Write a sequence for this structure.
């Protein structure tokens, strides 16, 4: 009997663990199905195009019918927080390698002046746009490419475009990040106002040197997670973005928001992968946070207390 018990108890423990895993998987699947249904009801059959450094995401359901992204604005060196911007930027050119016939995917290649190449695979999906990047240094010298800037224009999305209002910063009140584990609308508490260039606001995540970010005012606190986003003018949509790894969150000066991705430099012969997401989803912040933790499990501990 003791032998039987010794065998049965571990078997039961394994069985219980498997049942828990199945339940968790079912819960995730249920969330995706529920969120996906809301997305489909909102009619966002996203189409992608890229021309002259502008990535355009189109859907008849979106406010204004499209979102434009300066892709990419710049690749940057470290030591940038208090330096002339022109000394920070590493020149680059971007070329379109491939575009699918259905408008659902693109491939781009950036070639930096120091010889680094960054390949971008960009695909539309049910919750927005997925980015998969591969950065390579084929040269004989180490690269100083530490971070880069996708600049998301949100004036039209928030109903504060230049054709509606002259105030370039009216869009801010529609935007959010996460501080103290809670959604914080802009401008947040403890708004910084001093820097080499003003205005604007930079939030530096833990682990990134504060001297290696945008030379705009730096908030004293790190963000609680890697999301930055905004609510549409009709309050039916959320636009949000995240990258892994990321260098900073940034409220910009041309009706834009940024999650700027981190490269961290490239040694001779080194290759790194980076991924990002542009969320264009129904205005359900709890559902967005759940999807975010699925897409970015590395950020799950940061996001688990967020509301």
């Amino acid at each position: 009997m003791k032998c039987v018990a010794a065998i049965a108890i571990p078997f039961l423990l394994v069985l219980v663990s498997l049942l828990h895993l199945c339940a968790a998987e079912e819960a995730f699947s249920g969330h995706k199905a529920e969120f996906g249904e809301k997305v489909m009801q909102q009619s966002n059959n996203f189409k992608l195009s890229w021309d002259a450094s502008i990535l355009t995401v189109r859907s008849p359901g979106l406010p204004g019918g499209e979102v434009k992204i300066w892709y990419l604005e710049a690749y940057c060196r470290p030591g940038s927080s208090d330096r002339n911007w022109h000394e920070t930027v590493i020149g680059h050119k971007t070329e379109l390698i491939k575009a699918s016939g259905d408008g659902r995917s693109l491939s781009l290649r950036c070639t930096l002046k120091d010889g680094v190449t960054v390949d971008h695979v960009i695909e539309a999906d049910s919750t927005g746009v997925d980015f998969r990047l591969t950065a390579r240094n084929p040269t004989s010298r180490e690269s100083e490419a530490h971070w880069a800037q996708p600049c998301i224009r949100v004036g039209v999305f928030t109903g504060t475009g230049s054709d509606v209002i002259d105030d370039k910063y009216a869009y801010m009140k529609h935007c959010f990040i996460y501080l103290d584990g809670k959604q914080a609308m802009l401008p947040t508490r403890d708004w910084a106002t001093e820097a080499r260039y003003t205005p604007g606001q930079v939030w530096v995540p833990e682990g990134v040197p504060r001297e290696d970010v945008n030379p705009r005012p730096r908030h004293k606190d790190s963000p609680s997670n890697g999301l930055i986003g905004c609510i549409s003018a009709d309050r039916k949509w959320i636009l949000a973005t995240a990258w892994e790894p990321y260098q900073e969150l940034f409220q910009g000066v041309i009706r834009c928001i940024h999650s700027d991705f981190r490269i961290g430099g490239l040694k001779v012969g080194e290759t790194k992968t980076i991924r990002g997401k542009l969320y264009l989803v129904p205005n359900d912040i709890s559902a967005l946070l759940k999807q975010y933790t699925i897409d970015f499990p590395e950020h799950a501990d940061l996001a688990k207390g967020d509301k």
Q: What stands out?
A: Helices lie at 2-41, 85-88, 285-295, 300-303. The mean pLDDT is 89.
